[in-house]
Amino acid sequence: MGGATLLSAALEYRAQLESVAEFLRILAGICWTLNYFSMMYVSGREKIPNTGVFPLCCDIAWEFVYAFIHPTASAHWQGGVKVWFLVHCAVVTYILKFAPNEWDDTPIVKRNIRFIYGAVTLGFLGAQWSFAEEVGPDLGFFYGGVLCQTLASLGPICQLLARNSTRGSSLLTWGLRATATVGGFIKLSIYYICDIPAGPWFESPMCKFYIILTLVLDVSYPFLYSAVRRQELASAAAPKKRN
Question: What sections of the sequence does the record tag as coiled-coil (predicted)?
Answer without folding.
Answer: none
